[in-house]
Structure of Leucine-rich repeat protein kinase family protein:
Amino acid sequence: MAVAWLIWPIVLSLTALSANSITESESLLKFKKSLNNTKSLDSWTPESEPCGASQRWIGLLCNKNSVFGLQIEQMGLSGKVDVAPLKDLPSLRTISIMNNSFSGDIPEFNRLTALKSLYISGNRFSGNIPSDYFETMVSLKKAWLSNNHFSGLIPISLATTLPNLIELRLENNQFIGSIPNFTQTTLAIVDLSNNQLTGEIPPGLLKFDAKTFAGNSGLCGAKLSTPCPQPKNSTASITIEGTMKDANKSKYFLAFSTLGVLLIVVLVSLAFRKKKKKRRRKKARRTSEQDNSDDQQIQVTVEGSNSSRQSRSSRSGELNKGVAGTSDLVMVNKEKGVFRLSDLMKAAAHVLGNPGGGSNRPRSSGGVGSAYKAVLSNGVTVVVKRVTVMNQVSVDVFDKEIRKLGSLQHKNVLTPLAYHFRQDEKLLVFEFVPNLNLLHRLHGDHEEFQLDWPSRLKIIQGIARGMWYLHRELGFLNLPHGNLKSSNIFLAEDGEPLISEFGLQKLINPDAQSQSLVAFKSPEADRDGTVSAKSDVFSFGVVVLEILTGKFPSQYAGLNRAGGANLVEWLGSALEQGGWMDLLHPMVVTAAAEDKIMEEEIENVLRIGVRCTREDPDQRPNMTEVVDELTIEDSNDDFITIET
């Protein structure tokens, strides 16, 4: 009996704990009740599971059957956002309620202390945000509060208590007062435009462009055209009479006379210097013209070859032909410094060939032009892409499109640095990535370049993140990338992939698109000539299958050319029959055999690749879904969302 009395309190406490616990389904349904106009959330029912194997609830992102993301965007939702039920979602790390009709004060999202991303842009939230609102959200990396009606001061806790903050978007609100000094070194994206901010731009934000602060007439500083007023020094007024006053008058007269003489000397000196500089510029122009007409200035060799494929003079003449008759380069990204066309013309240039591959290895056909590697005098190495398949767009249209590409910022995207415009052909300048591209790492003959499974998974995840970013930022294009293939993916020193040659469909001659862009090898393009963002998804799937198998896809070069295999049909059929493991690269097979978790990862990635390459574009996932499905537990990658 004594033992029973000892056990009974424990049983009661366990019963109470069970009664107080709440499932994810119950928590989300309670949250739904606080919202209005919830027809778009009809899939949220007690009879189903939020992360069900057959059908997950709309607006949720799941990881191992647990909700880690709430993405209910553009659904016409309104009402009061009740944050309390969301505290019972232990894995919740990101929330996006963007572009709905929520109003009132900012909800109590700061009760969710493990949140990494908060997207509430495009609603009708208003009022002041408490200065200490973000103090408990130390894990927060992304905060999008733009396009609301917030007023008052920018919360100081945004600048002082968020050590990992990466993105901050407060534009198109009614914030007033001075900007706090953000000292986080992690900050990569900031937008404070179109508010009512005043005062000087703090030192911590001086690295950002002037457009970050546009639309705030009261702001001043070095980044803007409005200088900050100098503080006035107030001094006591002393009345001096008699001889002392006369003496001071004499001193003032002498001082002003001396200043006047010095001013005349300075003006004369400046006039002489200006004239001398003008003569120097004329001389430099003459020298530059001589350099441009001299074929021997550019030393061109073929990268990866013992002998030049063309004579030095003929190849240098070809490059000169591409830049003649225009003034200079137009810089669209100054992260690697500023350089001019004359710097390129004087640099030693190498034609980029097929390093590590050999003539008997497959090469990815197509592309938008030949490429040259050039080492500038300041030590920066660049790749100059000479493009001849561009259509006859005006310089204004071309400039707008390339500047948009140059403004992109993502660790998995290689943006252009500069361009040179000429009606019949153009030059695009990129940063040179010293490592081999993915094509040569997968199909080259070098054993030391073999990729293990963790490296391959990292590359696939990085490509997916980069493609999602391009689909978000270039969503106005019907084909945001258009030319995704392994030869256009470079590998940084840390193994992260860098996607290149994107966003050019609008500029390429329609007659050349089918030959130049691999997206036109998708089934729908082959069937009726149509392409879309889902054609990019198809190309991504082909790259995934190429990484898994190590086989060269026929989609790059035409059926059976250079040993190409139709990976899509090949692996899709094998997956249905259960014999897919035998078709994978030996490094991948070894990983699956040694580790059960890796085997599950590999099968998951394979299924994603096959889904992305389905015949019907509507049956392919979008890139947001792909990134979601590739997300693994404890990943450092944040949830992603789309703002319209």
Remarks:
- The CA atoms of residues 290 and 339 lie 19 Å apart.
- The chain has 17 helices and 24 strands.
- Residues 242-293 form the longest helix (52 residues).
